[in-house]
Protein 1
Amino acid sequence: MSAIEQVAPAPMTIKEAVAQAKQFLIDLGEEPLNNMRLEEIERDREAGTWRVTLGYDRDVERHGEPNALAGALAELAWRNSRTVRVYKVVTVDAQNGEALAMKMRQP
């Protein structure tokens, strides 16, 4: 191989793609990313990308206090449903690690 020829960098590993996607969401800083986990990952060789689905818990706003009639059962139900799971799909360039897109995914 001559000095002029350049070797293309190796594609990112699956772990590197996940780390890049997580860091992208963290850097956006839109909201707290509680309990963030990898949900799915898929490599699109034709497009040269990784699609990384990350899930995290989003706090649900509480509207008012339970009334006296609802009592303890309403409070218990509230405590057990204060979060919803949110899923984001981050598309990462497999060569350079750049986040190219982010989309919401329905559960």
Protein 2
Amino acid sequence: MFGGFSITVGLWRDAQQLMMTGLQTEFNVAADQIAHNVLKRIITYEVVMRGVKGYFESSKSITRDEFRTYVQDLQIQEKNPGVQGIGLVLMVHKADKAGHESATRKQGFRLPHQTGRHA
């Protein structure tokens, strides 16, 4: 009887070890896939940012319409649906701020609410 019990315990331990090895393998495969997907996403963002950088460096000035056309031509939403947007941020000198805001409003854009902070 003790021999049968020992065999049962041994088989149970082997089955338990086999199950844990299988779970560990599944976990490792899933973790590797997630890491690969994250790396792929980062590379996509890097390629897009390098493209935008090249566009800026090759132009003397860029208008909103030109930039919008450039971004639309990239077809980001179709080719990389995870990228949610590419924005254009203009640096405006303090002396030009009022004129820039006025021109922006005339183009139909709303300015963010003033918070009382000044840069």
Protein 3
Amino acid sequence: MKSIEEASKGQEREDRKGGLDFTGQPAPEEKSASGPKYPYVKVQLTGRDGNAFGILARVQREMRRAGVPPTEIEAFRVEAMSGDYDNLLATAMKWVDVS
């Protein structure tokens, strides 16, 4: 007999198979060359202040608005802040749709 936790994990896998995560948004795909992890999160960086903290704040704000889980937003923040300015931009493009 499965424990509640095992059953829950199985259901989560089934939900992701169907293309939706628990927020009702499309499930994030594994990192691929075809696009960002959360392609439905749109962030405009062109024509805006290029300050690193401003970019970080805009991306996190749009991720929250799109219903991305807080643990994922924190993972983005940690990865984005783990290097220099170029790393921040590359990480933003890896996680969301940047224009």
